[in-house]
Specification:
Elements: H1 3-20, E1 26-32, H2 38-51, E2 56-60, H3 71-84, H4 91-98, H5 109-125, E3 128-133, H6 140-150, E4 158-165, H7 173-180, E5 185-189, H8 195-205, H9 213-223, H10 227-239, H11 263-283, H12 288-300, E6 304-305, H13 306-313, H14 321-329, E7 341-342, H15 347-355, H16 359-375, H17 380-388, H18 398-414, H19 418-429, H20 435-449, H21 454-467, H22 471-488, H23 493-497, H24 501-512, H25 518-528, H26 537-545, H27 549-554, H28 561-576, H29 581-592, H30 600-615, H31 619-627, H32 629-632, H33 644-660, H34 663-676, H35 686-699, H36 703-714, H37 721-733, H38 737-754, H39 764-774, H40 778-795, H41 798-808, H42 814-828, H43 834-850, H44 854-871, H45 874-886, H46 904-914, H47 919-926, H48 930-944, H49 952-957
């Protein structure tokens, strides 16, 4: 027994001894909340009294007993007669049979006196203990007899114990208060369990296994120390096979790799459900008016207005004071705050009470609640919540409900809650609205679905266009349709920068029509402008009529959303054609100035801006804007990460990390994007995630894995050029320069068709030139190298220039190669492209060695190898190490293995892991993903020659 109950049991035993030793009889009222194991205490006390020879009687009242006069007294007389009456003495049985089944008009005083006189000699012969459980349900007649008895206890060696649940139905509250006011009556309250007692209970349940202290404290906190709730909570954990410790639940993770819920979240939710079930059980015993108030309040959710609730119940707020007080007492509602707002104690309790409403009444009540809220001027979103809970509406309600749901959807969309907006629109469409209203709902649904389900959005918007006749509404629908088309086809960077021809042509047709909104026309032009060489003739003729891109962009102020999108379109066009990067960057700065963009159109603006910034080497800015992509298009009330913007954002972050030389981060971001793209509506983005992950695996030298991933990306009708470029690198590394050349040239052909000349996307010219060099066709390689270098210099970003210079050096003699490689290193040192810099350093070291300059070779190789180590590029480290040994260099083994070989990031993560921190805790403390931690630890284990974290402490300590 828990220490608290031992103490309370000792108090009862002390009262029993006092009543037997001539100090006079006593009464004890134990006031307790439900779930405190009061019955267990009373049963244990009764058993101990029986062993002590006190002839106790245990009476257990039921809820139905409150309506049956003398029900408890009959049970008491039966117990007294069975337990202690002498042979042949049947007075108790006679009295029991004589008790009336209706309340006596004279309040039963003669009967009370007669029962007392019969009880008196029996008690004097043997000390008695009368224990009553659930005394709050005792009928009024029996309670009045107990009050009659307690007033005369001073003459009897008798102890009367009444257990009362104060948070349950109390039909005889006044009589209980009368008993408590007597001089012979003492009161006590059962206390919740302490943390120590909770730990003992958990330890017993887990068969002696010592639980973690945080686990015990959390279980104690969420149950309030109520032993019944605590025992049920522990039982659910045992049934689920969960240990007595905190941590993530292994059976479920989100698509982005985060735990679906922590163990603490799981425990809190289960505890709330346990409490909700207990409270609704108590609520079922309350009077009808109290239950009706709880159910009506549950219709409106948290923060229900008392005036509206009273109106729906057909009464006034002042008439609900009594039922409200009862709901607070039994634990359903919190204390009513100023302003008349009603609040359930937990959301789970509100749902549980709502579930008690009969299905036959639920639809009618929600319709009435929605009507009342509308009458009181509640926001459409609040009214619409009731309509979402109704499967079918009466025909007379269709028009009103459709209008409410449409307005609620617009409000939700404006607030960024696109998932909720889609729910409102789908609910309204189920009622088969008229064609005009159906078209508006379809447009609303399509706008909501663009960020998360572009395929479905396109279908709904196409249907809306067949129904719409108003030019402005058609323009809005086509604008969203084109956003859906572009995002749906955004399975590669070139598809985002140069949308498909059908989208551009469709927009071109619309631009020619009369569109009343100038900003919408600009936004349409912004998308049509990206059609590249295949765009509509009206776009090409307009551009040809201008003196150049600068003149076209100069007319755009960047004030409205359409103007900002058009500026981003100009910038992406400039970047695709490899015009000087300063032009594109200036346009992007103007497009991103002011308030952060929001909405589905902002996805295109941000995507283009991030790509241009990344191509130009502005990696920090690109990363910041990529991270804001999901915030720009929130798709739920909690800004859920699941959706198209999240997939694309993680892919962009992976590309940026790869350009910056953060291979572990790039791999983690690409893996997260792949997990996010598993949803059926996002399957089109699988190409993007596969190609991005394959690019990283090629750098890591994992060619077989990269080739396997590319099979899925290349085995679709719309295989992208960048996928061919990655496969070309795999083929080249595998010793197939002819296959690599074919892939590079096909990649280039497709990019040229799209009007993308910038080598920052894909240096297919350099790749094809390197394949030609390996095929001993240097003459054919030279023009490709020259063209690539010219385009890189024109664009002006360091990374493409450095790579183009390094490629060009492959067909030069030693002196020419050294000059080009030194320029490559000098250019790349001004950028954040660490991978490119490391490769140019290692290549220059190799050329220095061939030119007979071993000292310079060793210096360059050591620098390149150190930088490659920091990036986690083991393939280049091994190559540099071999070249360094070949030119007479010596390298301490600790540079390649052992604790000394760890990079600062690897060392930091290894030390945290050795200290016992989980991967999740390490990721949260360092503000990185769990995938990054896992990749770093993999490198650490390999460098330290260990198989796991158990040996980390010893291995790291060996160099301290």
């Amino acid at each position: 027994m828990e220490p608290e109950r031992v103490s309370e049991l000792s108090d009862l035993l002390a009262h029993a001894r006092a009543s037997r030793t001539g100090a006079g009889g006593r009464a004890v009222i134990i006031r307790t909340a439900s779930g405190m194991w009061c019955r267990e205490l009373l049963v244990e006390f009764t058993e101990r009294q029986r062993r002590a020879g006190a002839a106790p009687v245990l009476v257990s009242c039921q809820h139905r007993d409150a309506r049956e006069p003398f029900a408890a007294l009959r049970q008491l007389l039966t117990g007294l007669g069975d337990a202690t009456q002498p042979a042949g003495d049947d007075r108790f049985d006679e009295l029991r049979r004589a008790l009336p089944h209706t309340a006596p008009e004279d309040h039963g005083r003669p009967l009370f006196d007669e029962l007392y006189e019969v009880l008196l000699p029996a008690v004097r012969r043997c000390p008695r203990v009368i224990v009553v459980d659930h005394a709050q349900w005792m009928d009024d007649a029996s309670l009045r007899w107990f009050a009659h008895l307690v007033r005369r206890l001073t003459r009897l060696p008798l102890l009367v114990v009444l257990g009362v649940r104060v948070d349950d139905d109390l039909p005889a509250r006044d009589a209980l208060d009368d008993i408590g006011a007597q001089a012979a009556c003492h009161e006590s309250t059962l206390r919740p369990l302490s943390v120590h007692s909770a730990g003992e209970l958990v330890q017993r349940a887990y068969a002696g296994r010592v639980p973690e202290d945080p686990f015990v404290r959390l279980c104690h906190h969420v149950t309030g120390g109520v032993p019944a709730y605590l025992a049920r909570l522990i039982d659910t954990q045992l049934q689920a096979g969960l240990p007595p410790e905190l941590g993530p639940i292994r059976s479920g993770v989100h698509l982005d790799g985060r735990p679906r819920q922590t163990r603490a979240d799981h425990i809190r939710r289960i505890a709330a459900r346990i409490e909700a079930a207990a409270v609704t059980t108590r609520l079922a015993r309350q009077p009808e008016r109290v239950r009706a108030l709880a159910q009506t309040t549950a219709l409106f959710g948290d923060g229900a207005d008392l005036d509206i609730v009273a109106d729906l119940m057909g009464t006034g707020p002042d008439r609900l004071d009594g039922p409200l007080a009862e709901l607070v007492r039994v634990g359903v509602l919190r204390g009513t705050p100023p302003g008349g707002r009603l609040s359930f104690r937990t959301p789970e309790l509100r749902d549980a009470v709502h579930d008690t409403i009969p299905e036959t009444l639920l639809r009618d009540r929600h319709v009435r609640a929605a009507r009342r809220l509308g009458d009181y001027g509640a926001p459409p979103t609040r009214v619409a919540e009731h309509l979402l809970r109704i499967d079918t509406l009466h025909v007379d309600d269709h028009a009103w409900a459709g209008a409410v749901l449409y307005e609620a959807g617009r409000a939700a969309l404006a607030a960024g809650a696109t998932l909720r907006c889609a729910e409102y629109a789908r609910r309204a469409l189920r009622d088969d609205p008229a064609a005009e209203h159906r078209a508006r709902l379809l447009v609303l649904l399509g706008r909501a679905e663009v960020p998360t389900a572009p395929e479905a959005a396109a279908r709904h918007l196409e249907e809306a266009l067949r129904l719409l006749t108003d030019p402005a509404e058609r323009a809005e629908a086509v604008l969203e349709l084109c956003h859906a088309h572009v995002l749906r086809q955004g399975d590669s960077v070139e598809a985002v920068m140069r949308p498909a021809r059908d989208a551009a042509a469709r927009l071109g047709e619309l631009v020619e029509r009369d569109c009343p909104d100038p900003d919408v026309r600009l936004r349409l032009r912004a998308i049509a402008h990206l059609g590249g060489p295949a765009a509509g003739t009206e776009v090409r003729s307009e551009r040809a009529a201008r003196s150049g891109l600068d003149h076209a962009a100069a007319e755009v102020t960047g004030v409205t959303a359409g103007e900002r999108e058009l500026l981003a379109a100009f910038a992406s066009d400039s970047a695709c054609r490899a015009e000087p990067s300063g032009i594109a960057l200036d346009l992007i700065e103007r497009a991103l100035a002011g308030e952060p963009p929001r909405g589905s159109a902002s996805a295109l603006l941000l995507l283009r801006s991030v790509v241009v910034l990344a191509w130009a080497g502005r990696l920090d800015e690109a990363r910041a804007w990529a991270g804001s992509l999901t915030a720009a298009i929130p798709i739920g009330p909690a800004h859920s990460r699941i959706g198209l913007p999240a997939v694309v954002a993680h892919c962009l972050c992976a590309d940026i990390a790869l350009r910056a030389g953060n291979l572990a981060e790039a791999l983690a971001e690409a893996r997260t994007a792949g997990r996010l793209a598993r949803g059926p509506e996002l399957s089109a983005l699988t190409q993007l995630t596969r190609v991005q992950l394959a690019r990283i695996r090629v750098v890591l030298g994992q060619y077989d894995a990269a080739t396997t991933m590319l099979r899925g990306a290349l085995g679709v009708p719309r295989a992208r050029a960048t996928a061919l470029g990655v496969r070309a690198r795999c083929r080249h590394a595998a010793g197939d320069p002819r296959g690599a050349l074919a892939d590079h040239l096909e990649c280039g052909r497709r990019l040229t068709e799209l009007g993308i000349a910038n080598p920052a996307l894909s240096d297919w010219r350099g790749g094809a030139g390197l394949a030609l060099v390996d095929l001993d066709r240097r003459t054919e390689a030279a023009p490709l190298f020259e063209e690539g270098l010219e385009l890189a210099r024109r664009w002006g970003a360091p990374a493409p220039i450095g790579e183009a210079l390094r490629n060009r050096a492959r067909i030069e003699g030693p002196r020419g190669a050294i000059r080009l490689l030194e320029e490559s290193v000098a250019v790349l040192e001004q950028s954040g492209a660490r991978l490119q810099l490391a490769e140019s350093l290692v290549e220059s070291g190799r050329v220095y060695a061939l030119a007979g300059q071993p000292a310079a070779a060793r210096l360059a190789l050591r620098r390149g190898m150190g930088l490659a180590q920091e990036c986690g590029w083991d393939l280049l480290v091994e190559r540099a190490h071999k070249d360094l040994l070949a030119c007479g260099g010596r390298l301490r083994r600790t540079s390649l293995s052992g604790p000394g070989s760890l990079t600062p990031s690897e060392r930091q993560i290894a030390e945290l892991a050795a200290a016992g921190h989980t991967n999740r805790a390490i990721a949260e403390s360092l503000c990185v993903t769990r995938g990054t931690v896992e990749v770093h630890l993999t490198h650490v284990y390999r460098k330290l020659g260990i198989s796991g974290r158990t040996a980390l402490s010893t291995r790291l300590a060996s160099t301290q």
